[in-house]
Amino acid sequence: MGTWCAGPVLLEIVVPAHNEAGRLPAGLGLLSDKLAGLPVRAEVIVVDNASTDGTAEIARSWRGPVPVRLVRCDRRGKGAAVRAGLLATRAPWVGFMDADMATDLAALDDVLGLLRDGRPVVVGSRRHERSIVQAYALPVRRLGAVTFNRIVRDLAGGVADTQCGFKFFAGPLARAAAADLRTAGFSFDVELLAHCVRRGAEVTAIPVVWRDRPGSTFSVRRHSLRCLIDLALIRARAGGGRPAEGVRVPPQASAPSGEAPGAVAVRESPRAASGFGRG
C-alpha cells in the first residue's frame, strides 16, 4: 500500500535546496519512490533557499508517485530553509534530509516504526556502531565534524552526530522547536535539538548507511568561523536553563529520574541494520 491510500498525510519530509538543480531531480526520484512504498501517506516539501538556478521550477513541476510542495525561503542559510519547511508542515510526523540523499533511504522504515512507537526525535548517526560510512572526501572535514560534535554534545542531549542531515520528529514538537530556532547557518541542527531536549524529548539515534556526495555547499575554510560564532550564541541563549514553554512530549519520553533537568540521554536504537540495502 503506497502513499496514495485514503486518509490524511501522516509524514512530511522537508528538503532544503539552494541551487540544487543538478542534484534535485535524482534526489526527488529516489525519495518519492521510497515514500510511495511506505504504509502511510507522505508528502515532500522542497524549500527553495534563494536559488538562482532552476531549483524552484523543478520542484514546482515535479510529477511523481508522491506530492511535492514548493516553499520559498529568501533568507539564506540551511537553518533558515529547514525552519521555513518545518513551520509549513501539518503532519503528525515530520523530518528533513539533504537533497543529495547521502543517507540511504532504507533507514526510513525504521524511522517510521520508531515514530509510531512514540519516539519524539529520531536522528541518523554516522557514529553509531552499526553505521556504514563512506570516508569523507576531505580528511579535514571528518576531523572537523568529530571535533564539532564533541563540543556540542551537551547542548544536543548527548547526540554523537548532530550534523547528519537525516532527522525526524513528532510534528507538534518540531514546529514548536522550529519556531524558536534563530540559527540560519550550518549549526542550526544543534539549536533545533537543544529546543527539543528542553521540552523533555529523548533523542533516539539510529544507524545509517551514509555516502559522501560531491557538491556540498559547506566549506571548512569559509564557514568554520561562522559556525563557532553561532555555537557561542546558541550556548548564550541556552544559558538561562528555563524549560521551554509550549509543546511537551509525552511523560514516557521525559528525562529519566535522577538526571538534571534537560539532560535527556540519547537512546541508540539497534534497529535499522536489517533494512540496509533496500530502496
What topology does this entry show?
Layout: E1 11-17, H1 24-36, E2 42-49, H2 55-60, E3 68-73, H3 78-87, E4 93-97, H4 107-116, E5 121-125, E6 132-133, H5 139-152, E7 166-170, H6 171-180, H7 188-198, E8 203-207, E9 209-210, H8 220-238, E10 267-268
Parallel strand pairs: 1-2, 1-4, 2-3, 5-8, 6-9, 8-10
Antiparallel strand pairs: 4-7, 5-7
Helix pairs in contact: 3-6, 6-7, 7-8
Characterization of this structure:
By secondary structure, the chain is an alpha/beta fold. The chain has two domains: 1-101, Alpha-Beta Complex (Spore Coat Polysaccharide Biosynthesis Protein SpsA, Chain A), CATH 3.90.550.10; 105-279, no CATH class. It contains eight helices and ten strands. The chain has helices at 24-36, 55-60, 78-87, 107-116, 139-152, 171-180, 188-198, 220-238; strands at residues 11-17, 42-49, 68-73, 93-97, 121-125, 132-133, 166-170, 203-207, 209-210, 267-268. The strands form two sheets. An eight-stranded mixed beta sheet has the order 3-2-1-4-7-5-8-10, with helices on both faces. A two-stranded parallel sheet has the order 6-9. Helix 2 (55-60) links the parallel strand 2 and strand 3 (68-73). Helix 3 (78-87) packs across helix 6. The longest helix has 19 residues, at 220-238. It is globular. The relative contact order is 0.16. Residues 251-265 and 272-279 have low confidence and may be disordered.
